[in-house]
Amino acid sequence: MKSNKLQNVRPALKLVAAALALSCGAMGSAQAAAKIVINNLNGPGVGFNDPTPAAPVGGNTGTTIGQQRLIAFTHAANIWGATLTSPVPIVINAQFTPLSCTATGAVLGSAGATQVFADFPGAPKPGTIYSYALANKLYGSEISDTPGAQINARFNSELGKADCLAGSAFYLGLDANEGNNIDFVATLLHEMGHGLGFQTFTNGASGAQFAGYPSVWDHNLLDNTTGKLWVDMTDAERAASSLKASGLSWTGARVTAAAGSVLTATPQLRIVGAGAKALAGDLFAVGEADFGPKLDNSPLTGQIAQVAMQADSPGSACTPFNAANAAAVRRNIALVSRGTCGFAVKVKNAQDAGAIGVIVADNAPGPVVGMGGADPAITIPAVRVTQADGALIAASLTKPNGSSAGTVGKFERSKSLMAGADAQRRVTMFTPNPYQPGSSVSHYNTAASRNLLMEPSINADLTHSLMAPIDLTFELLKDIGW
Amino acid sequence: MHTPVFILRKVAAIAALAFAGSAFAAGQDSQTVHKDPRTGKLRNATAAEAKQLNDLRAADRAAQKAARKAAGAPATGVVRLQQNGVAAAYVDEESVSYSVVHRTADGKLEADCIHGKTAAEAALTNPVTTTHSEEHQHEVQ
Fold this sequence. Notes:
- The complex is a heterodimer.
- Chain A folds into three domains: 5-197, no CATH class; 215-264 and 419-473, no CATH class; 267-409, Glucose Oxidase, domain 1 (3-Layer(bba) Sandwich).
- By secondary structure, chain A is α/β, with parallel strands linked by helices.
- In chain A, the strands form five sheets. Chain A has an eight-stranded mixed β-sheet, sandwiched between helices. A five-stranded mixed β-sheet of chain A has the order 1-2-3-7-4.
- In chain A, helix 1 (16-25) runs parallel beside helix 2 and helix 6 packs antiparallel against helix 10.
- Chain A has helices at 16-25, 65-81, 132-139, 184-196, 235-241, 253-262, 323-329, 343-352, 387-395, 473-479, and strands at 5-8, 36-40, 90-97, 105-113, 115-118, 130-131, 151-156, 170-171, 182-183, 221-223, 228-229, 248-250, 265-273, 282-285, 287-288, 300-306, 333-337, 357-361, 370-371, 382-385, 407-418.
- Chain B has a domain at 3-72.
- In chain B, the strands form three sheets. Chain B has a three-stranded antiparallel β-sheet. Chain B has a two-stranded antiparallel ribbon with strand order 4-5. A two-stranded antiparallel ribbon of chain B has the order 6-7.
- Chain B starts with a strand and ends with a strand.
- Residues 1-35, 40-45 and 128-136 of chain B have low confidence and may be disordered.
- The chains are: A alpha/beta, B alpha+beta.
- Chains A and B meet through strand 4, strand 5, helix 4, helix 8 and strand 19 of A and helix 1, strand 5, strand 6, strand 7 and helix 3 of B.
């Protein structure tokens, strides 16, 4: 097993992290076969060499800020090193340095490949660019005639200062227990993933390829509405496909094979009974709530009762239900409208009135989205539907807050669809409309559930796993040649 | 002359792809938000204002490129043929991945990954529209 080493490229400085790296390296599994070398570019007293005392946290035994940063960085590198195979060391130039800030936001860090290569012996696809570290692996030795680090990584040394998201900091523990801070290890794993090749170099907004070459990524990206791969499209077709909600699917065999073990079945609302138009029931896409119980494979079934506006409430279901509404929703599923107060407030009021579930209908046009919020006292499930679907469901009822319409709702999970995959069970990519420069296409769809490391938002519930059945990052890298 | 205060998605995207070659001319259609000096309110940029901003950004990119050249840094986004016959190109800041964090109205931190320096810096000033608008968006109300 090879260990991942951290070296300080400034000879005057101590190789503080070398021993730490070795100790972390011992954590790698037998499959570890990629050596990752971290060049500490920081000078004395700053960044990775910051001597500010720090108490050990979350398994990070460093006693200064600099040591803890090094240990966390090495920990992330070792996770990758234990996952990848390559005969060529992967060198990362790393430093803490001032990056852009505002009072309410900050660039945490950046990472990326330094070079790309095409048409080399060992390349699976001709005329296609591969990021430096992957090209080295496939080539079998150093590929560049101007060798250097394969990945550059920088992190914000100003984070937490008065004019840089004051009071916030990287969580340097190794246990993903970051609370309200930013998990440095998860951030590193994500950004290193991009540096290793989890991205297209093709511009999704214009469709233009990098220097006229497709990325290996583009061979695996399919417009599932036209059946055309990105590599075979015109610039205009690529740009158009980047805007199709859940319209770009990853076709790589490894990701597709593993998706079923990682992603959960898609939640849905089925309307049956007198209010349904189809014999098997009408299906509606739903967003799930961050609070209350998740939907499971056993459907929650109940009659739907629409909650009427109350004179004492500034919005639908924002105050305790009056007698009429309480009678309507008791032992039924409450249909309420979004707006004015929090989702959790509405659901808790319905629960207190005896409802067994809640449907929140959006109050503005838009796609299906989830519901944020928190209330540990909530014990009933809730789902969110679009404004249009909410109107259809309401129209199937005979009385505004009645429960006698015979419209029955079932909160269930699809037997065939997965959250974050298309109908053919291929994982979809992040394709919002309008295009989000920097985030679109090169990340997994945020509809994925469980949350994935390579979604554009770094979610709080991420573990530090890269592989199925926890995550799909490594599977995608395997698809492109790792 | 109005002062551009926010750079929205399109101009960021255009800047992000400018490295990729001469096919990407500056001054393409862009959408920006400006502060109207008369009312103090934000409004869409006029075509002239958008062009002005694009010109400024193109000039900035040209200056950066010249600075890189003067510093002896290799050109990015340009394919060179190595002696071993392999095609190679350096990657610039617009293909680099950035982690951007912002504090939401309820005090939570949200971190997003964004490719490209231009887009990342735009996300700092316009985090909601730049980073959270797809199907799994979790508003609290």
